[in-house]
């Protein structure tokens, strides 16, 4: 059987392990952390994530969808919190019933590792740090933290699922014609927590809570333990200038997020601000994703994106599904699969990275604009009457597997249709108006 | 005295060594090649370069300008070669007398190393490869090729002049908020040679020869030995499809560059095509250029650009001059200097990288468009009558030290003036026309 080396046992690495386990390949997964199932506290990335169609489809293919979805909290709409604490603006994500699911990153990761490990052909090597790729030798160089030994590992296929700062990708920087960019945005984030009140959710659980305040925003997603993971996104400059000490932090929250502050509580707020620093947000694009017919960048290693479209994990999970689908089509011909995958996926990744960056603007501000709300309502209205013809952008991204680049093409077509309709309507109104005037003056 | 570690003894590293030698600092330069003064053949980058004002100013500051300029060939204009071999289109670079200088890369590099070595406070370490920077320890890790030893070197200031694929920069990829992009263009290049004819230049020496053919181009620059370094730029795809074998190569040159082919000669052309592959062209942007108040990226390590504005070396040389100027202003306060330098230079580097990419289009095609030629003539005309008020874009970049970002702002202002003038002229013509018509029909 062919052998696959998976670098990283995070979300995308672990899901790939499940896919290749089922495919019957020999699977070796190298992960620098200890086994997260045995860790008390897992440092690093955000605590919960929004699972939508693309992620669900991938989980379904390895038999995990229903189990995972059951353990999450469904969200049917965005609920906008005004500065006075009122929530007058509720924006459904799609048609009644359409939803995304708030899930716990760690739990999801654990379930996938356990699932993969049930297969005899899968081995996890924890505390093994992937250091780099030697393209001349065609091997991955891994450091065993337990023995300080350096291992040279090799397989028929090498999947770099080692995250936004991928060591494999760094070794490929001088690969001919490798285009790459990494961009940090001006915003950082801090995660807070809203605890249950009288053993109940302190806020409505089945919505995505949003406090947009122009250049900074708070969001809150429910967890099954009735807490809410609550995240403040703000420019680093603002963290420095307006949240530099305890007094300022409280003052800032009192002014802009009085209702959220009430639920978070002053002591907990200050404890967090004194313990952690704002985290950075990075956007990574590269092309190609495949190298030398053998190495493939996947997930954040290929396309880290800002979190404002909720597609980072979903896109990474879809990577695994797309790879599996193309392997099927190509009858396990690795070189051909990688070529096809890279051509197709680079374009889609580029598109969703750009959409996420665009939504970075939208979440901050647009949601409160009349024109934006009107278009949203209009799109959902058309969608209701023409469910197959008119699908809003957000719905195509979130509730379908339409390739991301096609989503944008369809949106352009929609914009064109609307512009023309608007022009025709204006013309009709003008002509109608002229006739009325003419009639009024009895010109005919 | 403070100590500076210079990574790389290429053009920018060697010039920095001259600057810091004169400043009286202790200077250590680490270079992975052997001493090029003792090498028979130096592999790698292109053979000659166009020196203009920014480069000259930097050389002047270390007392090398006159010596270097004397050893180059002056170029006063672009001379466009048509497909029929005729040269009907001559575009002066500026006012009569204004010129750029074609110089030999290797000679220039050798002169600077020799100049720097005359100072007791300068040491060159050849065959010492800079491997990486350890930011925690604050040291540069260098491998001595002669002993296979790994050295940890340190200084008050570390200058990464280690080129477009900088190892120092690669170690900084995970530095917080480091924005970076590298982009290969679709074009590659192959260098050819036109030999002297009867011990004379085969073509007019004091112009930049240009054979623009839409998506591919040949250029030729004279050398003091009466040869011409002749470069074909073309899409990699075209190299594959149209120049895959001897017959096709000759056919291609006969069709598009008959006059150049005559001078190059078929045997020499084929010898080159069989020996070398087309080289890639990369554009690198990053921000910041300075790290931890101690490390500075300079030259191609900070801003590799496509060669179509002839500013790569000039910008790198100006880096050295700007650093020296800011060190003077800041009285050798390294941390303050680096902060000031990075803020100022990132913006300018970004601008010239973009301009070079824009000129990539221009050189390929625009030079043959009427509108382009007209604007060029018009700019030079205005410049002649208002030399201080109206300086064409190319002249500002090439013949002044106006910061690159200001150059673009000034150009935008010029465009605005022209647009308004054009509108006023149109209006005047329209009004004039109306009056004539009115007069004709004796309406007054």
Oligomer: homodimer
Global structural class of chain A: alpha/beta
In DSSP terms (H or I, runs of 4 or more residues), the helix count of chain A works out at 15
| Rg of chain A computed from alpha carbons, rounded to a whole number of angstroms | 24 Å
Question: Kindly state the mean pLDDT of chain A as a whole number?
Answer: 92
Strand order of the largest sheet of chain A: 8-2-1-12-20-19
Strand content of chain A: 15-25%
Tell me the greatest interface: A-B, 14 and 14 residues
Instruction: Describe the global form of chain A.
Output: globular
Distance, first to last CA of chain A: 86 Å
Protein topology:
2 copies of one chain form a homodimer.
Chain A: E1 3-7, H1 11-23, E2 26-30, E3 48-51, H2 53-61, H3 65-70, E4 73-75, E5 77-80, E6 89-92, E7 100-104, H4 105-117, E8 122-125, E9 128-134, E10 139-144, E11 149-153, E12 157-160, H5 167-171, E13 179-184, E14 187-194, E15 208-213, E16 216-222, E17 228-235, H6 236-242, H7 246-256, H8 258-264, H9 266-275, E18 282-287, E19 290-291, E20 295-297, H10 300-303, H11 312-329, H12 334-364, H13 370-385, H14 393-399, H15 404-440
Parallel strand pairs in A: 1-2, 1-12, 2-8, 5-15, 12-20
Antiparallel strand pairs in A: 3-7, 4-7, 5-6, 9-10, 10-11, 13-18, 14-17, 15-16, 16-17, 19-20
């Amino acid at each position: 059987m062919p052998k696959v080396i998976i670098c990283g046992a995070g979300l995308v690495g672990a899901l790939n392990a499940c896919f290749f386990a089922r495919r019957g390949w020999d699977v070796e997964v190298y992960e620098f952390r200890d086994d997260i199932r045995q860790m008390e506290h897992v440092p690093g990335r955000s605590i919960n994530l929004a699972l939508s169609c693309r992620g669900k489809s991938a989980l379904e293919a390895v038999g995990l969808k229903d189990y995972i979805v059951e353990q999450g909290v469904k969200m049917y709409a965005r609920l906008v919190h005004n500065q006075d604490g009122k929530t007058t603006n509720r924006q459904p994500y799609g048609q009644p019933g359409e939803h995304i699911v708030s899930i716990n990153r760690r739990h999801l990761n654990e379930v996938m590792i356990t699932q993969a490990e049930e297969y005899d052909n899968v081995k996890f090597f924890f505390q093994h740090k992937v250091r780099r790729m030697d393209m001349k030798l065609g091997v991955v160089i891994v450091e065993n933290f337990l023995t300080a030994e350096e291992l040279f590992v090799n397989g028929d296929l090498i999947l770099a699922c080692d995250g936004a700062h991928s060591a494999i990708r760094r070794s490929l920087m001088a690969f001919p014609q490798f285009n790459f960019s990494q961009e940090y945005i001006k915003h950082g984030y801090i995660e807070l927590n809203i605890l249950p009140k009288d053993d109940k959710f302190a806020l409505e659980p089945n919505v995505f809570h949003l406090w947009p305040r122009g250049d900074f925003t708070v969001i809150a997603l429910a967890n099954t333990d009735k807490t809410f993971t609550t995240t403040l996104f703000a420019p680093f400059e603002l963290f420095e200038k307006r949240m530099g000490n305890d007094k300022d932090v409280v003052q800032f929250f009192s002014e802009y997020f009085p209702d959220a502050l009430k639920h978070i509580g002053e002591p907990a707020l200050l404890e967090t601000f004194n313990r952690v620093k704002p985290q950075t947000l990075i956007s990574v694009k590269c092309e190609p994703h495949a190298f030398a017919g053998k190495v493939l960048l996947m997930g954040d290693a290929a396309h880290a994106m800002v979190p404002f479209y909720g597609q980072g994990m979903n896109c990474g999970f879809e990577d695994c599904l797309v790879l599996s689908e193309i392997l099927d089509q190509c009858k396990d011909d690795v070189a051909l699969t990688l070529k096809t995958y890279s051509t197709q996926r680079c374009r889609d990744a580029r598109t969703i990275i750009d959409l996420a960056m665009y939504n970075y603007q939208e979440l901050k501000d647009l949601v409160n604009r009349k024109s934006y709300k009107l278009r949203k309502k209009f799109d959902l209205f058309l969608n209701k009457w023409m469910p197959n013809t008119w699908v809003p952008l957000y719905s195509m991204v979130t509730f379908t597997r339409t390739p991301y680049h096609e989503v944008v093409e369809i949106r352009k077509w929609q914009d064109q249709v609307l512009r023309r309709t608007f022009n025709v309507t204006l013309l009709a109104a003008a002509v109608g108006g002229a006739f009325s005037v003419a009639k009024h003056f009895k010109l005919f």
